[in-house]
Amino acid sequence: MYTLLIKAHLALIVLSFISFLLRTLWGFKGSPLLENKLAFAAHKAITLTMLISALILCFMINQYPFVDAWLTEKLMLLIAYVAFAMLAFKPSITAKTRSILASVTCFLFVMIFYIAKLHTPVLLG
């Protein structure tokens, strides 16, 4: 069961990041798809399902945010990731600002992945 859930969780992470990249590209192109309700709903559904799978995995491995430093750091970075991604999706920002926000978001994604892979905090360790 654990193996199946971790694979599903990883697939959802990849889908969520692809969704972020696609929506960011739409923002650069000024595409009306950036504000498409179906695309936004799909992105939210993927992210919510990913978070639910993460919560179930926490219970399966008996490690929890605010108890285990690596999960606390990962959660804090995830909140920052979501905040920067939401800012990058704003249709009214300049291309330069969108580039900076998208770059920070990608960096946060890499940090989250790194911490998840090693189960070691970077900032709180």
From TrEMBL:
The identity of this protein, by name, is SirB2 family protein
**Organism field:** Vibrio gelatinilyticus
Q: Name one Pfam family in it.
A: SirB
Where do transmembrane segments lie in this chain? 6-26, 38-63, 75-93, 100-116
Name the keywords, alphabetized. Answer: Membrane, Transmembrane, Transmembrane helix
| Superkingdom in the source lineage | Bacteria
Under InterPro entries, the record lists: SirB
> Would you tell me the Gene Ontology cellular component terms?
plasma membrane
